[in-house]
Amino acid sequence: MTRNLLIGWLYLPLWMRILHLLLSGTLVLTALWLGGMRPVLHQADELSATQRQHSARNQAMLRRLLRQPPLLLLESELVQLQQALLSVKRPAFSLDGLISSSGGTLEAWRPDNQGGELTMRLRWPEFQAVLQYLRSLSAGVMLTGFMLREQEGLLSVKLSLVLNDDF
Predict the structure, then answer these.
(1) Residue 147: CA atoms inside 13 Å, Cβ hemisphere, count?
(2) Which residues are listed as membrane-spanning (predicted)?
(3) What average pLDDT score do residues 58-75 get?
């Protein structure tokens, strides 16, 4: 049957054979366009739009980066600030300093390798003075916990301190 169709097609006039070839080619190209090329071109358009967005974002970030001061200037300012911080002398922790600044009385001091536990008896304003003293110290002393109790009209304060020599 295919042979009969091919022989029949060969006996057609030349202009009809050319017309059949053109129509068949047009159908094949249309099928390729709709099935294969169109989605690829659509994806290429999307990628191009994404690239434009990324390029615009990168240009904006570059403009912001260029507006920032140079890195060497920032480093020199950082060094100056660090030197200014180091020049501020804060006192180190002293048990005598703590007692004299608060005005309280020492009940117990249990030092250990990392700091210690301190128990004092004092009035409320004196407890605030203890906290103020600890706040004024260098960063090498940390108050990790405290406990307040009332005993005979005074506060009994138990402070847990950690000393850190890294600072």
Answers:
(1) 7
(2) 14-34
(3) 89
